[in-house]
Amino acid sequence: MTTFSSLGISKPVMKALEKMGFEEATPIQEQTIPLGLEGKDVIGQAQTGTGKTAAFGIPMIEKIDKDIKKIQGLVIAPTRELAIQVGEEIHRLGQFKGIRTLPVYGGQHMDRQIRALKEGPQIVVATPGRLLDHIRRKTINISNVHTAVLDEADEMLNMGFIDDIRDILKAIPEERQTLLFSATMPKEIRDIGAKLMKKPEEVKIKAKEMTVENIDQHFIEVHEKQKFDTLTNLLDIHAPTLAIIFGRTKKRVDEVTEGLHARGFRAEGIHGDLTQGKRMSVLNKFKNGRIEILVATDVAARGLDISGVTHVYNFDIPQDPESYVHRIGRTGRAGRGGEAVSFITPRELPHLNLIEKVTKGKIKRMQAPSMDEARRGQQQVTIDKLTSTIEKQELDAYRESATEILNQYDSVTVVAAALKMLTKGGRRNAPVTLSSVAPVSVKPAYKDKNKKKFRGDNKRNFNRKGGKPQRNRKFQNKRGKSNNFQSK
Ligand SMILES: Nc1ncnc2c1ncn2[C@@H]1O[C@H](COP(=O)(O)OP(=O)(O)OP(=O)(O)O)[C@@H](O)[C@H]1O
Ligand SMILES: [Mg+2]
After folding, report:
1. Distance from the alpha carbon of residue 52 to the mean position of ligand 1, in angstroms
2. Residues 43-60: pLDDT tens digits?
3. Coil/strand/helix, residue 154
4. Which intervals hold domain DEAD-box RNA helicase Q (predicted)?
5. Whether residues 175 and 229 fall in one domain
């Protein structure tokens, strides 16, 4: 067990950690915070939900001179929602040191952002496009930045972002400290990253699998046309507290969301074509439980930390194994459990094999549930509610009417009628048709690289390779959550 105080953390940050309920450092924090404090460049890789934000946030905060009202720390993240979330976590960590943190992202009023930048934030958490806009307009000064972080580094160094990142880093002094963090780091991308750094130290928290072991992973082989019925049946059986459903395209997300509405589920979609205001309001509704289902493109795949997400469904299998890791990592965070179910059409089975091989995980086959099981699932939800009402007592006001009705009908009939009335699902048969989509195929690059092992290989063999069994370390934070982070 490593306490934060043994890592040489200052009093104000210790006070913040205590307030946040962080008692012990997670393995990635334990290993990278000292390096960060020494000023070393670091490439940090650890599973989803294991505290990478604080791993780079804490040393960054420690190095800020709070009397200098200039941007000294810069974090770059791939999506707006993630920039906001990381900004909030850094703000919490730096609250007693009096550090000003500002998120800067697209879709926000430029004028308002420029005004906020003039107020002298010391840490900026930005998305690359908007940050470059400010650099080009000279409305941001990052010439005093001494610490730069790429969160979701492999995504930031991938084709879509790499040119922007190069341009941004050019505007920061070369003697900076550069930190790269992600749950996934393909070697080619890591090599690109290392070229932007000075003698980087690599910290990779060893784990048997790339995905967190407390996420139960399943797949269902299902034809395209049956996916939607399978989904609603599963939702009835699982009765998730909060669930994220990933679809391949924006149109797909819209269609699945509409279909879920037609069948009586509280769901909203999130993707890049929505206004920023809408994106935020959908996410907020999801966070405070006003909707129970978020249907999303990969815009929500990385980094988002929403407590209470119990289930992730890959309505469409993702193109890259890395994307699979991040998507399912929206559940099973900070040591909690979670369940992930992926829908695979028969032609996509080789793609599933590739995902298993790259992530070194086992995705267990499960059968598509029947309508009958779904109906029982719906009723179970009602029964649970009924049971908890019984346990709470306070039923005296209803006893007289209950006795009257029981004089007329037998008890099973009465309870059955009550269950029927209370059980949702009247709209479960609403017809829903989605536009058809082509199956995902294995990218040629992956195919070539994995050709030999991949073709005749049997899943079992490549799942068993490498890595010793992991020990689990439990610790409880003050909010009462049991954090079962995996230890090294
Ligand atoms: N030492 C700790 N003790 C208790 N909770 C922690 C600790 N460190 C982080 N957490 C909490 O764990 C959750 C996950 O942290 P974080 O979002 O930083 O994970 P991550 O490794 O960046 O995941 P991802 O790869 O999905 O981005 C957050 O709610 C965070 O506040
Ligand atoms: Mg993260």
Report:
1. 6
2. 999 999 999 999 999 999
3. helix
4. 2-30
5. no
